[in-house]
C-alpha cells in the first residue's frame, strides 16, 4: 500500500509532500502549520495527510477533522477516501469513513452529549440557534425589568452579541464594551446581571446555545481526568481554515493537544473574513509559539504555487491583497494556461447587471461549461434578488447558498419545535411555540404548563393530566397522545415518529395558513431531510448548528443530480472553486460595505472578502460594477439610491490588468458619410431658375 501512496504523493509538490508526511514515524515531531494563499492546495494537502495517516496504520476513529462547515467536512472525507482507495486498492465501499469530521460546534455537541453525566448535564439537552438565543435573552431582559428605567437599554440582539463576544474572545465584559460597544458601557452592571440570569435560565431549561458548546467543551477539558480521556481519544487533530477560528477554539485545541503533537492547522491570513463573529487572525499568527514543543516552535510550511487559477486572475487578486498589511507575505504564481484577462464590466444598474450575468452564463454553457462549474457571488444574500428573477424568467436553474430561508419559515420551525419539545420537555421556547398552536391555549396557560414541566419526573403524564380551558380540552387530548408517542419513540426507528408529528401538525397548518399546500410540501421536504440522519437528536443538533444552506427558489434543498447555477454569498463560498465566477456589485458601499466604512480593521476585512471572492475562479472572472446601486442604510430608513463607483480596492492604476467593458455599449452617433465633391453651382442654378420662372 505504501508504494501506491508514494505514487499518489508524487502528484504533490515538495512543500505539500513535506506537510503530508510531517511527523510520520517521528515521535519527536510537534505541531504543523500550513499557511498559504488561496488555491495553493491547503485543503488538498490536508486530505492527503489524513489518507497517509490512515495508510500508515492510523485509526480513522482516532482522527478528528475540524472544518468550517458540514459540507466541507464531507468533501474532505471524500477526497481523503479517494486517495486512500487508490493507495490501498480498495473499492469505494471499503474506504474507511471518518466518524469525527465536522465543525467545532457539532463535534463539541457530540462530545458533550457523550460525557453529559460527568458534567452534570442532562444528555437530552437541546440547542438554541441564534434566533432562539436572542428570544431567550429578550425574555430574561424583560423578566429583570431592565427596560423600565427610562434610559434606553440595548436590544436583545445587541445583548446577545455582547455576551457572545465576551465568550468567544475570552475577554472581560468591561474590555469588550470599551472596545466594541462603547455606547453600551454605561450598562455594564446591568449587563452583568442580565448575563448571569441568562446563564441560569439556560441551565434550568436544559438548553445550550452556540457559544455554550465551545465554552462547555473547553470547561470539560479543564478537568484533568476528562481532558486526558477526551484528548487521548484523538491521535490527530486537523483543522482547516484556521484563520477563521476564535480565541476559545484555539484554547480548546491547546487543551486537546497541549504540546502540539498530532495537531495540524492550515489557513491563510489573507482570507480571514469572520472577525465580526469573534474570529481572530491572531490565532494563525501565534500558532507557532502557542504550540511549541520543548521550546521548539511549531513547524511551518508555506505553499506558493497556485493550482486553481490562471495567472491573470492571480495577478489581479494579488494586487488587491498586496495593499493589505499581511503578516505572512506570499506571492502566488500559477502555471495554468491563460484564458484572457479578467473582465471588469460597467453596467448602469442592478437590472442590467442581472441581464448581463444571465447572458454570460448561457454563453459559457453554449461553450460547453456546465452550469455547476459556474457561480455568482455577492456580499449579502439580498443582493441576488434581481438576478434570481432574471434566472427564473429565463428558466435557468439555480441553487442559492448562504440564505437560510427554508429553516426560517414559520411552519418548518413549528415542526422542529415539536420535536425539540419532545426531546427536552424543559425547553421553554420550543414548548411555548408548540402548545400555543392549539386554539384556546394562550401565553398564560403555556407558562403554567412549562412551569409544571420544570421539575416533574414524568413529562408524558404531566402533559396528559394538565388542565386546560374547556374549549381546548379535545384538542389537548390529541396533542397529549402525539406528545406521548414522540417521547416514547424508539431511537432506532427514526424517522418514523415524524409521521406522528406531521399528522398532528397538518390540521393546524391548514387552519393557520392560506397557502397550506406549499407549506405541506416543505414539511414533507423536512421529513426527507430527516431520513439522512441517524437519530432525532443528531437531526436536531446538526440542523441547528449547520442548517442546510442551499435553497432553490423558496422550497427546501435541491435535487442535487441536476445541473444548476450556484448563487452564493462570498462568506459561504469559502474554500470552493468554479471555472467561471461572477462577482456582483464590486462597488464602494457594497465591498467595502457602507456599514464597514469607518474603522480601518473593518475595511481591511472587506478587502480580504473581495480577495476570497476573486480567488474562487479557475478560468473566468467577471467583476460587475453597477453605476447606480441601492443600499439599505440602517439609520436612514429604507433604500437609498447611490451613484457608487468601482470599489476602492481596485485603484485606477490596476485597471490595465482587466478587460474593461461598458454594457450595454453607449449609443454611437451614426458615422458621418463624407460629402461627394461639389458638382453643382447651386447659387447660379437658383438664379437661373428664378429668372426662367419655372422649377423642374
Ligand atoms: P483555499 O484557500 O481557497 O481554501 P486551498 O489552498 O485549500 O484553497 P485547494 O482547494 O486544496 O486549495 O486546491 C485548489 C485546487 O488545486 C484544487 O482543484 C486542487 O485539486 C488543486 N491542487 C492542489 N494541489 C495540487 C497539485 N499538487 N497538483 C495538481 N492540482 C492540485
Ligand atoms: Mg481550502
Automatic annotation (TrEMBL):
Sequence ranges assigned to domain UvrD-like helicase ATP-binding in this UniProt record: 15-310
InterPro entries referenced in this protein's UniProt entry, alphabetically: DExx_box_DNA_helicase_dom_sf, DNA_helicase_UvrD-like_C, DNA_helicase_UvrD/REP, P-loop_NTPase, UvrD-like_ATP-bd
Enzyme superclass (EC): isomerase
A single MF term (Gene Ontology): hydrolase activity
CDD domains, per the entry: DEXQc_UvrD
Keywords, alphabetical: ATP-binding, Helicase, Hydrolase, Isomerase, Nucleotide-binding
Domain UvrD-like helicase C-terminal residues, every copy: 311-575
Binding site for ATP: 36-43
Catalytic activity: ATP + H2O = ADP + phosphate + H(+); Couples ATP hydrolysis with the unwinding of duplex DNA by translocating in the 3'-5' direction
Documented EC number(s): 5.6.2.4
Family: Belongs to the helicase family. UvrD subfamily.
Protein name according to UniProt: DNA 3'-5' helicase
Amino acid at each position: 500500500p505504501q508504494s501506491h501512496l508514494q505514487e499518489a504523493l508524487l502528484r504533490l509538490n515538495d512543500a505539500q509532500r513535506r506537510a503530508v508526511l510531517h511527523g510520520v514515524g517521528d515521535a519527536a515531531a510537534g505541531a504543523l502549520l500550513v499557511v498559504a494563499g488561496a488555491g495553493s492546495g491547503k485543503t488538498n494537502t490536508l486530505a492527503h495527510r489524513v489518507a497517509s495517516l490512515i495508510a500508515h496504520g492510523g485509526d480513522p476513529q482516532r482522527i478528528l477533522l475540524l472544518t468550517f462547515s458540514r459540507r466541507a467536512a464531507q468533501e474532505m472525507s471524500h477526497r481523503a477516501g479517494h486517495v486512500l482507495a487508490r493507495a490501498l486498492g480498495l473499492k469505494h465501499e471499503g474506504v474507511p469513513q471518518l466518524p469525527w469530521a465536522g465543525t467545532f460546534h457539532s463535534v463539541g455537541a457530540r462530545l458533550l452529549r457523550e460525557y453529559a453525566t460527568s458534567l452534570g448535564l442532562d444528555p437530552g439537552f437541546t440547542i438554541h440557534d441564534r434566533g432562539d438565543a436572542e428570544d431567550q435573552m429578550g425574555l430574561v431582559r424583560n423578566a429583570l425589568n431592565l427596560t423600565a428605567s427610562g434610559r434606553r437599554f440595548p436590544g436583545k440582539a445587541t445583548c446577545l452579541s455582547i455576551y457572545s463576544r465576551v465568550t468567544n474572545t475570552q475577554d472581560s465584559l468591561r474590555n469588550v464594551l470599551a472596545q466594541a460597544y462603547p455606547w453600551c458601557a454605561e450598562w455594564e452592571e446591568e449587563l452583568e446581571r442580565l448575563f448571569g440570569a441568562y446563564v441560569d435560565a439556560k441551565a434550568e431549561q436544559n438548553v445550550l446555545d452556540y457559544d455554550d458548546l465551545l465554552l462547555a467543551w473547553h470547561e470539560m477539558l479543564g478537568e484533568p481526568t476528562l481532558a486526558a480521556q477526551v484528548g487521548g481519544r484523538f491521535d490527530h487533530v486537523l483543522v482547516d481554515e484556521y484563520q477563521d477560528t476564535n480565541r476559545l477554539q484555539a484554547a480548546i485545541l491547546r487543551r486537546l493537544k497541549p504540546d502540539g503533537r498530532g495537531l495540524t492547522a492550515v489557513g491563510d491570513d489573507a482570507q480571514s473574513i469572520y472577525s465580526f463573529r469573534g474570529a481572530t487572525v491572531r490565532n494563525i499568527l501565534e500558532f507557532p509559539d502557542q504550540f511549541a514543543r520543548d521550546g521548539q516552535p511549531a513547524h511551518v510550511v508555506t505553499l506558493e504555487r497556485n493550482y486553481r487559477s490562471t495567472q491573470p486572475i492571480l495577478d489581479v487578486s494579488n494586487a488587491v491583497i498586496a495593499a493589505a498589511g499581511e503578516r505572512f507575505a506570499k506571492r502566488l504564481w500559477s502555471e495554468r494556461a491563460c484564458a484572457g484577462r479578467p473582465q471588469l464590466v460597467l453596467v448602469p444598474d442592478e437590472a442590467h447587471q442581472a441581464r448581463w450575468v444571465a447572458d454570460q452564463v448561457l454563453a459559457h454553457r453554449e461553450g460547453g461549461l456546465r452550469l455547476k462549474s459556474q457561480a455568482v457571488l455577492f456580499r449579502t444574500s439580498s443582493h441576488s434578488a434581481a438576478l434570481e428573477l432574471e434566472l427564473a424568467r429565463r428558466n435557468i436553474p439555480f441553487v442559492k447558498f448562504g440564505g437560510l430561508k427554508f429553516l426560517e419559515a414559520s411552519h418548518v420551525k413549528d415542526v422542529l419545535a415539536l420535536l425539540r419539545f419532545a426531546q427536552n420537555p424543559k425547553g421553554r421556547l420550543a414548548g411555548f411555540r408548540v402548545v400555543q398552536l392549539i386554539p384556546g391555549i394562550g401565553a398564560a396557560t403555556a407558562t403554567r404548563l412549562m412551569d409544571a414541566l420544570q421539575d416533574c419526573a414524568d413529562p408524558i403524564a404531566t402533559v396528559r393530566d394538565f388542565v386546560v380551558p374547556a374549549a381546548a380540552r379535545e384538542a389537548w387530548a390529541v396533542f397529549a397522545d402525539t406528545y406521548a408517542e414522540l417521547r416514547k419513540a424508539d431511537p432506532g426507528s427514526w424517522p418514523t415518529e415524524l409521521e406522528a408529528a406531521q399528522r398532528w401538525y397538518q390540521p393546524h397548518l391548514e387552519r393557520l395558513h392560506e397557502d397550506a399546500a406549499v407549506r405541506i410540501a416543505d414539511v414533507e421536504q423536512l421529513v426527507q431531510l430527516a431520513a439522512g440522519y441517524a437519530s432525532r437528536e443528531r437531526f436536531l443538533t446538526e440542523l441547528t448548528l449547520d442548517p442546510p444552506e442551499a435553497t432553490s427558489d423558496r422550497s427546501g434543498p435541491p435535487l442535487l443530480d441536476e445541473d444548476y447555477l450556484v448563487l452564493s454569498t462570498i462568506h459561504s463560498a469559502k474554500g470552493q472553486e468554479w471555472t467561471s465566477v461572477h462577482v456582483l456589485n464590486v462597488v464602494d458601499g457594497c465591498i467595502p460595505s457602507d456599514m464597514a466604512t469607518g474603522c480601518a480593521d473593518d475595511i481591511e476585512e472587506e478587502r480580504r472578502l473581495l480577495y476570497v471572492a476573486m480567488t474562487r475562479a479557475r478560468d473566468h472572472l467577471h467583476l460587475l460594477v453597477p453605476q447606480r446601486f441601492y443600499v439599505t442604510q440602517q439609520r436612514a430608513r429604507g433604500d437609498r439610491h447611490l451613484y457608487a463607483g468601482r470599489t476602492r480596492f481596485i485603484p485606477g492604476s490596476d485597471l490595465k490588468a482587466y478587460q474593461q467593458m461598458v454594457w450595454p455599449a453607449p449609443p454611437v452617433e451614426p458615422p458621418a458619410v463624407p460629402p461627394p465633391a461639389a458638382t453643382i453651382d447651386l447659387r447660379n442654378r437658383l438664379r437661373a431658375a428664378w429668372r426662367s420662372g419655372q422649377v423642374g
